[in-house]
Amino acid sequence: MARSSLYQQVAAEVRRAIYAGELAPGDQIPTEADLMEAHGVSRNTVRLALGELENEGLILRMRRRGTFVRERRPLLMRPQDEFLPYDQEGRRFDTFVHAVRSEGRTADQRIEVSIVEPPEDVATRLALADGALAVVRRRLRFVDGQPYNTLDSYFPLEIVGDSEIARPGDITRGANRVLEELGHLQVRVIDDLSARMPTSDESSRLQLEPGTPVVVHTRVGYDADDTPVRVAVSVLPADKHLIRYELERH
């Protein structure tokens, strides 16, 4: 039998054990020697099988400690909650903070603000003229002190250039409220969801393990004149997030 078929068989058996719950998150995978004996294969075949499972994001190989089933504790995200009413003190409803605190965990973020010529896809979504600038608010968001996801929000500079959106720091009442005060209440949004492998920069910022894909959630907000006033791009490691939409029939 071909070696490729052998390593795929070994990988399939370990994969089945993980999905069946026989190997739970955090459990140690049998050693290479144990897998060699159990399947009657060479060490190289076992290593090829483990490499495949690692690339799928199912296991984590730790030097001198062994191989373990990756921990999976997805954060439930509800994108439709973004426009829930403000509280009595005028503070925005932060879907990320709410999701984290609902699980008894701690949320934090780092914010960087700059004026940029946005990527072509963002400029197109914002219907910007060639060379037009945007304000981008970049967030690296943490759960229990660990990098969890990123959120980059782009706004046309000509709309928000003199507002808090263009200045560093958090905005307690939220950028959406500032847009509303500027006369650009968002009345509808379009969401796009896609999946891909992370860039090297994303892998570094989010401290991703090899083989971890990301979900990219892109939201475009439009005002009453159907002018796009915001593009928000979230990069969500697929093993850490569950995205849930609820739709009601009218």
TrEMBL record:
Signal peptide start and end residues: none
Entry keyword set: DNA-binding, Transcription, Transcription regulation
Residue span(s) of domain HTH gntR-type: 4-72
SMART domains assigned: HTH_GNTR (SM00345), UTRA (SM00866)
Stored SUPFAM superfamilies: Chorismate lyase-like (SSF64288), Winged helix' DNA-binding domain (SSF46785)
CDD domains per UniProt: WHTH_GntR
Keyword RNA-binding among UniProt keywords: no
Protein name: HTH gntR-type domain-containing protein
Organism of this sequence: Microbispora siamensis
